[in-house]
Amino acid sequence: MIETIIDSRIEAHIESTIQFTSLYIHIPFCKKKCNYCDFLSFDHEEDKIEAYINALVEEIRSYKTVLKKDIIKSIFIGGGTPSVLEPTYIDIIMKEIHKLFKIDKAAEITIECNPGSLSRQKVMTYKELGINRISLGLQTVNDERLQHLGRIHTFKEFVQNYNMLREVGYDNINVDLIFGLPNQTIEEWQVTIDQIITLNPEHISVYGLIIEEDTKYYKQFQQKLWTLPEEEEERDMYWYASQTLSEHGYNHYEISNYSKQDYSCKHNKVYWTLGNYIGMGLGAASYYENNRMDNIRNIQDYIAAQGNLDQVIANKYESSLKAQKEEFLFLGLRLFEGISKQIYYKKFNEKLEDLYGEVIDELLKQELLVEEGDRLRLTNRGMDISNYVLAHFIL
Ligand SMILES: C[S@@+](CC[C@H](N)C(=O)[O-])C[C@H]1O[C@@H](n2cnc3c(N)ncnc32)[C@H](O)[C@@H]1O
Ligand code: SF4
To answer: What confidence tens digit (pLDDT) does each residue in 111-128 have?
Structure first.
């Protein structure tokens, strides 16, 4: 017993003297742009890959002094599609990170992959480099639908890659799915959920389709080439995923995310709990010691900057106290566990009720929020209409 108390005191002391930070590394290349996606990525800039990686490595080096006291608790190599790169580029990036920063032994290190751009050699390199989590974009198991989305792979190819990842020893795999697709029926969506469950990934992200401007889907939607499912049917899809995944041992731990016990995404949790993270690469965003930063989005300019942070960072501003309070609630309530009133008090030196008392009472009355001891969280109905509920916390 005494031992545990001493241990926890040591842990508390360590927590107060060191700082944990996460890294996001952006790879803005894809083999082919999907019809729905407006992420910052290009499918016609292969000739810039080498110069981009060189500039990225310079940017990583520029953070050596900034992060000298920090322990890196998660790394997320995202995109775009990092798996389109030759594995030697991932090797260069990871070795540089290991050389410059202190990485926590238990760090979660994720790479985003498209099933149409993987190979055994790539996957084995990722494993050797200590990348311990793979996130695969799938979206749907229906091949016609995959084609309509502009994806470059079939469901069969996805399964082959998934099995290869298991053979190489990956035991932490996420699969991305999207519902509410053009002309999609609930029955079609149910097949996707049911089939994914049989594969048993540790983590599943389930996104509702967003029609983004500057995408092929936006133009097609405007031209009325297809219709979206009615709102009620879209909600049924959300509920089918939520209920079926829960019945099969997945925790619905965040609005769009489900995981097996102990496999929630540590990296994304940092975003939702206002932890420190540095984004490196084109257009990457950072939140570090209450400062928000956004990198430039023009690839030529990014390459020319050669990691000079004065040129790479387009915006840097201190997050106001008002913004911090809003984000504490707005982001924290996305998590099923919700937020702690005590932590709010410790952080802002005022009671949560002082600022949000009326709003909280109203949402409790409407059964969109529930209070459990020190914690406040969304109810199932609150999760369903989370955009409406969370908007109440913008001051
Ligand atoms: C960077 S991609 C994943 C890795 C890889 N690029 C791929 O697509 O296979 C991130 C994920 O965002 C989701 N996504 C992108 N655009 C979306 C949109 N307009 N609506 C909903 N989800 C979207 C997709 O599920 C996609 O897999
Ligand atoms: S969904 Fe993935 S593969 Fe498709 S364009 Fe977006 S980032 Fe690229």
So the answer is: 999 999 999 999 999 999
